Fold each of these.
Amino acid sequence: MQIEKAVAQMEEAFKAVQMPRPPFELENFIIGQHDTPEQQYAQCVVELQIKYDAIRRANLQKRRIALEIEELEKSGDPKDAIDAELKQIDTEEQERAMIGALREFEVLFGIWQSFPHQYTREELNAAQEEYWVKRLTRQAEQDLLASGRVSQGNQEALRLIGRAPLPQLDHVREVEQRYLEVGDVRVLMVVPTEEKAADGLPCVEDLVIPSGVQVKIYNVWGKSTAEAYNDAVMTLLNDSADFMLTVEDDTFPPPEALTRLLALAREKPRTIVGAWYPKRNEMREGAPIVIVDGKRQGLAADGWIHEVHTIPMGCTLFPAEVFLQTSQPWFVTTNHLTQDSFFSQKARDAGWKLLCDTSIRCRHIDRETGEVYK
């Protein structure tokens, strides 16, 4: 088959496919990509402006090429005749492109007409805050779905507009409301283990659950310590829980620990509160760290409540707000810091206090020897 005969049959097909961005794409991915009607309207107008200018330029270019072809055909030079044919191809390409451009303009104009209101510059400016809050929140949610954490760029953008770097931005207000109302308080009880706890979690079996408190036990297993706690925080926030209670599987709190820690957290706003337990050594040195005369040392159990420099995670109650007011990753283990030291620093930097009630004493058990430290 000769190419000319094939092309003759395809001229209408060539014209039919001309439209780089079909109506569905224009409506949903170009205009609809924005989170507010004001920004959708602005995008539509900008697209129409760009397309209108492109069409005008194309028409002028077509006229220019037509004049150039006419001049080349008059010269009688065989090379000019070839150039004239090449420019004719350019003209045909441009005519097909114009079909697509006009189709896009028609669709965009229809979208523009569908807006119930034509916005002024002042109205577009006034809607910017709502737009950026919605857009950055959506981007943060997409980050979480993709990688489990909000990217550094989106964290910084949210910070610049005065928002917490998480998608659950209304959670703080919800928690405050539940604080003021009579109703259930939700606690995520987190117990990290190396392997899945198939036979229960003895470390929390004796804890008394106060009236009006809903507890969900979350066994995080098979992860590094920092990864386990970061995973637990995401679960806390996605569940819209009010507190996260961390209990290590070798730490056994007294039965009343949760009741007393919740009472202390209510009494002391913007605090992380924990029970006391010793390190596993002969000195029975407290795991919480305080600063005395510029030096770090373990907190002694004297029966009083103390503000500490580092609060360990053996039996500690974290209000959900602290994670909304600090950036990810919350827990990191470095060559110099454990995950609890790392987050203690972040929380203190964000204006939170760390309190240890040394009258709530936990047993600390050596998994290998069974020796009990208390």
Amino acid sequence: MDDAFALLKKYTDRVGPDYGTEDFCIFMYALAKMQKPKVALELGTGLGATAFWLARAMVENGAGHVWTVDNGSHWLEMQAETGRPSALTESERALDYAQFFSSCVDKFGLSGCITLLQVDMPPYPILDEKIDVLFYDYRHSPIEIMKLLIEFLPRMSHGASIFMDRVSTTFDSYVFLEHLIGLFNAGKVPLLMTESMDDEKRDRFLGIVRNSTFTLSHVTERKNRKQNSCAWLKIEPIDIVPHPRTTMFF
């Protein structure tokens, strides 16, 4: 284990509980090591645990880039906290959000593989390439889930994964997503999702749904806290082999 890896593990053990990602980020690291995504987008950086582990996998893979988006507003709240012990050190709290993020990137040896976009959402950032991994930790209601899928389904690569934090153990969002993915796999899209689209966008969106297979899994952990789950949606083209494609043995 090199020094940067050990430092990152120590850091996420310290700050991860603030967002419930101290274990999940290792899961994302392992997945990225196996599937070698080229483009990952995170909506809601927080203290960076998930983004840093995705970037760590890309460093080891020798390719890929993480784009992570956060306006830093929660950072200001954490700096001002006096009512409970902080996961941040005094030297970390003295920095502004961009400085803090940059210092972590340098410390963990992630330069060139990760970029912070310190902007408000929405609108969501537009990337030049298709997205292989999308991690969403922003808003979690059924309406926001619909908005997310309307925005990003056309921008995902074959075999891409969308991870939605907290959705699996937020009951209304869980029930809604289960129903919605059932409709998608039947080639159907709710009118509420398409009625604001122009004809071209609607036809394109319907085409993606009808020519894709959607696999929904709920990754839950046995911890009594609000941030204790993630809904994992994998989107594959209708095919006779799994995606992303790899060596097949016959």
Amino acid sequence: MNPARQTAIGVGLALAILAAWAITHAYAVFFHELGINSLVIGPLLVALACWLNVGLFIVAHDAMHGSLAPGQAAVNRLFGRLALALYAGFWFDDLRKSHFEHHRAPGTHEDPDFGTSPGLVPWYAGFLRRYFGWPQFLALSAATLALRLAGAPFANILLFWALPAILSSLQLFYFGTYLPHRPSRDPFADDHRARSNAFGWLASLMSCYHFGYHHEHHLAPHVPWWRLPAERRRRARAR
């Protein structure tokens, strides 16, 4: 695809995700009143906020690979830093370094995302210890204080900001790391040590913005998230 066209689409989608996240966050945290209606609307808001949090990380992920805006390092850094800061106070440059270590030796003990235990819970716990430290704790504590001083109810902060952040980390881990890279009786296709799920387009989008087409991502890391279904079809036809 023409780099200018890819940049226009990538930046447009990134702005849409950021705007949707900001609107959802502002309404849910500041204006949504907890009550009987929340029995229906509340879970929907949590699910939407969770999915948009995943979107923030996926925007940053494309920025790490330079696929959000090909050839425009400053644009990629801008979106990557903003998205990760909003997501959980992460520093883009540090995560980018770790992510490229993952791509250099996926599914091995040199891979920072690799679990020392194949079980879901211990692997996820190690994943959290690896990426969530004191800088993130202090950043999120400061953000919580700022939200309270701005008038956000503490219950809303917990339900519609903290809970979606935790759930989105589990969603990203499960569909983007655990399922693609867990060892099994079936051997991996190649040294990328990654598998793809068999989800259809909508399920793939809703689960992890097509990040579950993970083998295709490792084969072509320059392809942005929204082009992974087409990349998957192209490779399937070429077999």
Amino acid sequence: MQGKKLLIVGDGEFAAIAFEYFTHDAGREVVGFAVERAYLKKSELFGLPVIALEDVESRFAPARHDAFVAITYTQLNRVRARLCGIVKAKGYALTSYISSKAFVWRNAVIGENCFIFEMNVVQYGARIANDVVLWSGNHIGHQAVVGEHCFLSSHVVVSGYCHIGESCFLGVNSTLGDRVKVGRDTIIGAGAVVLKNVGDRQVMRGNPAVHAGIDSFRVFGVKVES
């Protein structure tokens, strides 16, 4: 909710960016930062407290504060996804940021804990699921779907009716042709042009894009899930 104060989870570069954008573009009051105790290395950031996530409810009551998890694509987005689950279990509502300089059509759907930078275009009927980062300058075509926990770096083109599965990473200047389906946990390399459907856990590169012969979990250091 806009009236609530905001807690940012994380204290790295993305957390600093989130503080800047939420404060100076969205008009939100950020009151502090939280990280897991094992990673607590500093006591403040921008003059605000950095506290252990394990104790955060005692300092910032969920009823009076929203949260945003500011983690990038570490372990193929799994760290951010895991922290979103922890924060929601504590009772916080996860908020999203949409830049005032982004264009989002009126019936596009944006989920929770999304961060949409400047110069993004999200067209008619597009759906951006929960916990998605759209870095600057992307195009999400009409009726396209971006699944949960994805990270799209800058100047990515997602054409109309595409469907991107969960936990994918799309590199700078990559392109998906019309109606392309991308499986979950897939990496689309920088500059890759994908014109055919792609399965799960693929690493795609080149123009036209081909499978690089390596598992995406290996690239991002993800342990195989049982």
